Q: What sequence folds into this?
């Protein structure tokens, strides 16, 4: 597998550092409003990456999706509406998770709220102050960018160039105008927490450092988000994290391109925004997924109803074929007949598509080619089906099974997305049961082989007094 790494500006081989387990941190929303359709892109791209890792690489994924529930925008909204910050945050946090459900994305392993981790953030800021990387002015705390040698390494911005271009504010409390805020002093009416240097609230960049380290531990594999987060957010995360530990933070930084609306960046301030829930009222989740994944995740893309309509039509070709063939096969009953030569040749021809699909996905998540390959299988299957004999038709089962398998990471079939996890659990349960029977029969070699092979897939069996339990390694 190769992935483009923003940090090195190269496409590099990727595999998890520890235990066949990938730590994936995706920066989440600031919950002061509904998310717009552009914010859906990273959600779907990194859900696809996770599904592919789990299903095709056999890796376990620890997926952290945080929620920023204390921030300037929330406070501003509270002032405008008279509602409390807590109430606004609760409303839009609930709306966000409802939206994830509607998009049929896999539930994140952890969805931490910033406000539940304030103590750890205070600890991080205190540590940075103690080590000389941060200083306090009137209750505000700033990161001292001059003290961190590698500042700018992610975004490629050199400090001296930035300084030349930066506007120096007249009454600036900062040592360097590029120093960024770690902690904001309390203002009347704002949510605040006590600290040794006075009450206040954390800055945005500090949250993600704390939550990533807490929930991923040593699995700092991939940190992801939209490419509007490269600077300053991710640059500032790296500075804090690496200044405290002296060790590299995440190995891979992945960023998706922006969604534009008639060539303009979609943003709330411009007002050219389609809310995600409105789009999902008009198009089902699978069409939305197809639409986004039809464009390589790093490229910018343009939003339009026509584009979504075309995605729905193209997806319909895949779904219709699979549903029709599955219905035919059900009606034909569980015939155990053999395919004839033509059927066998067709079934064998499918292997090549699977190989090409994996090559595409391994090449920096090329979902565009992957979707193209799915459409090729559909076209080939339709050609074969139009003049297949009764015996031949059995080979169609292999085709629809392959389509479902390859469509899973892309999430193009709602029912398979929901049921596959439970089938996995059932299959593991079955193997555990078989292994117990083998052990009863003293077939230890075979029993151990099942245990070892499962372990290779990230499933750990533990034998206890009441039988065997299994867990996904993490
Ligand atoms: Zn973040």
A:
């Amino acid at each position: 597998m190769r992935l483009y790494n923003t940090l090195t500006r190269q496409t590099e081989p990727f595999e998890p550092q520890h235990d066949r387990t990938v730590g994936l941190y995706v920066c989440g929303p600031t919950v002061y409003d509904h998310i717009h359709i552009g914010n859906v892109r990273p959600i779907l791209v990194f859900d696809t990456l996770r599904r592919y890792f789990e299903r095709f690489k056999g890796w376990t994924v620890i997926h952290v999706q945080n929620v920023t529930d204390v921030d300037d925008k929330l406070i501003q909204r509270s002032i405008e509406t008279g509602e409390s910050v807590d109430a606004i945050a609760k409303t839009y946090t609930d709306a966000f998770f409802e939206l994830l459900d509607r998009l049929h994305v896999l539930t994140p392993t952890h969805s931490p709220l910033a406000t539940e981790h304030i103590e750890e953030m205070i600890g991080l800021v205190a540590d940075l102050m103690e080590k000389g990387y941060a200083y306090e002015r009137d209750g505000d705390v700033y990161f001292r960018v001059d003290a961190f040698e590698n500042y700018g390494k992610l975004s490629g911005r050199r400090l001296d160039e930035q300084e030349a271009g930066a506007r120096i504010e007249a009454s600036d409390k900062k040592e360097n105008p590029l120093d960024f805020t770690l902690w904001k002093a309390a203002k009347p009416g704002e949510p605040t927490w006590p600290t040794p240097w006075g009450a206040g609230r954390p800055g945005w960049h500090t949250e993600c450092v704390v939550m990533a380290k807490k929930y991923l531990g040593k699995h700092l594999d991939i940190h992801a988000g939209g490419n509007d987060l490269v600077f300053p957010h991710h640059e500032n995360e790296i500075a804090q994290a690496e200044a405290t530990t002296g060790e590299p933070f995440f190995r891979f930084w992945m960023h998706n391109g922006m969604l534009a609306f008639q060539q303009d960046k979609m943003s709330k301030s411009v007002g050219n925004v389609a809310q995600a829930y409105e789009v999902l009222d008009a198009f089902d989740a699978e069409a939305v997924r197809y639409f986004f994944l039809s464009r390589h995740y790093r490229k910018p893309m343009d939003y339009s109803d026509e584009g979504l309509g075309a995605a729905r039509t193209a997806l319909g070709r895949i779904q219709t074929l699979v549903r029709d063939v599955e219905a035919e096969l059900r009606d034909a009953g569980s015939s155990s007949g053999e395919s004839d030569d033509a059927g066998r040749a067709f079934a064998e021809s499918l292997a090549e598509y699977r190989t090409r699909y994996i090559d595409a996905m391994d090449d920096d998540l090329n979902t565009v080619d992957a979707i193209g390959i799915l459409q090729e299988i559909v076209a080939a299957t339709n050609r074969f089906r139009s003049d297949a004999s009764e015996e031949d038709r059995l080979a169609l089962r292999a085709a629809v099974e392959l389509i479902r398998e390859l469509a899973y990471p892309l999430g193009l079939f709602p029912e398979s997305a929901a049921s596959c996890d439970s089938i996995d659990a059932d299959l593991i349960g079955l193997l555990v049961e078989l292994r117990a029977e083998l052990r009863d029969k003293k077939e230890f070699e075979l029993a151990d082989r099942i245990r070892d092979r499962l372990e290779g897939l990230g499933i750990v069996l533990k034998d206890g007094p009441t039988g065997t339990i299994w867990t996904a390694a993490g």
The CA atoms of residues 260 and 302 lie 5 Å apart. DSSP finds 15 helices and 15 strands in the chain. The pocket of zinc ion is lined by residues 27, 208, 233 (CB under 6 Å).
